Amino acid sequence: MTALTLSTAAAPGLRADAIVIGVAKGAKGPVVAPGAEAVDKAYDGRLAGVLETLGASGAEGEVTKLPAPSGFKAPLVLAVGLGAVPEQDAGYDAEALRKAAGVAARTLSGARKAAFALPVAEAADAGAIGEGALLGAYSFDAYKENGKDPKAKNGKAPLAEVALLGGKPRDKAYKAAVERAVAVAEELNRARDLVNTPPNDLNPESFAAIAQAAAKEHGIKVQVLDEKALVKGGYGGILGVGAGSAAGPRLVKLSYTSSKAKKHLAFVGKGITYDSGGISLKPAGHNETMKCDMSGAASVFAAVVAAARLGLEVNVTGWLALAENMPSGSATRPGDVLRMYSGKTVEVLNTDAEGRLVLADALWAASQEKPDAIVDVATLTGAMVLALGNRTFGIMGNDDAFRTALYEVAEEVGEPAWPMPLPEHLRKGMDSPTADIANMGERMGGGLVAGLFLREFVGDGITWAHLDIAGPAFNEGGPFGYTPKGGTGSGVRTLVRLAELTAAGELG
Ligand code: BES
Ligand code: MN
Ligand code: ZN
Q1: Nearest CA to ligand 1 atom 16
Q2: Catalytic residue numbers, as ranges
Q3: What does the note accompanying the cofactor annotation read (predicted)?
Q4: Domain range holding 83?
Q5: 404 in a domain, yes or no?
Q6: Ligand 1 atom 8, closest CA
Q7: What does the pLDDT look like over 2-23, one tens digit per residue?
Q8: Would the CB of 359 count as within 6 Å of ligand 1?
């Protein structure tokens, strides 16, 4: 992982491969952002003009490289776009800083050290820049042979070291902001690694082992239910989905507790390590990226570990519902009826609607502890991708105020999200002649139908929200901002912020 430090060094004397500065979009051309004063001075105050000559406008995502002025130890100045100049006194928005830092870190892959001289008005800005840099520097090359040698010409190792200039290294608030950025980004990047790991190497058993090891390291209590324990406990949903795979299912419970906690949150993650669709097999073209179907579990795992590393004063239980959805002679058939952990029976009409089956058991298990709220995270439906696109997750739930609160939390941390309804009239589409409910209903509004299914497995009176991250969990396009190609870690920052606000008594 990229190392991150707060530095009081002045830009000119700093030994680094590049100095990163910000450029904003002004009414009359590019504007040099605060933090870059020393660079501007060395350009005789003409840096904005130089940038304009080079074609820079200050637009978000833009990168302009220029030679460092004489007298600078670093050879390169990298100017990243921050978008519009903020209104007077408003300061740069955290998300603009995060994205610019992410773009810079990604552009500088292959370099060893960079100094970030972006606008820092308060501790939170240093946190945002740090987070963006660490997330943007991420790359997954565990399976690239030449990636193993950082000196390999096209190996392009991630930027190794980031020095944040303009902050106050001895100030408690700045230190805390940077520590938070490091903990959240490291765990989020680990979630990305899990998502990107191919399904022949990441199955329910190996995922559970990774969770077990991390939990031990961070003082989190961990309990793994293997197939035998799941049978004994009556977890028919998780078992039914895992029945076709040679790699048996697991339910992992991670309990982080704080002696000062007043509230208890439960996070539940869909962990299908590969979704072939099962007997209702997905056609070619729809299964190549289905290693991403454990993204919800990866995000829950990351959020619980981050909460422990930050020592948040709230109890957080993470539930990872892990199974591989495969067709075989032992697989669940369309037409089978499963008896779920809650005691309800489900007629499986489509084995590709498996996420709701594993989640149903985990939601019911989570409910038994009567937490103050449950949030599940899942790559649940293609319908949500059709509705909201590739970058926005949908939020559903049984409590409008909590759904709104989560939407605001997501917005605050820079995760695009949108509240979605659970229309009652869609429930009857899941009526089954044979069982209590079917795992499929009307095709139209499929994301909401899935949400209605999950609602039936939440204990009475428990506040619950559901994040359908099927769109943003896996980026099949090119990288943007601090988001890489592949696994994104969608949901992690929303969960961590929710835990922080709950700990602070500012929510629920
Ligand atoms: N894992 C998929 C949903 C998905 C689709 C995730 C695209 C990421 C990208 C889920 O298990 C699934 O197959 N859902 C079906 C449900 C249907 C059979 C009711 C779907 O959305 O088509
Ligand atoms: Mn499926
Ligand atoms: Zn799935």
Answers
A1: 353
A2: 282, 356
A3: Binds 2 manganese ions per subunit.
A4: 3-170
A5: yes
A6: 470
A7: 999 999 999 999 999 999 999 9
A8: no
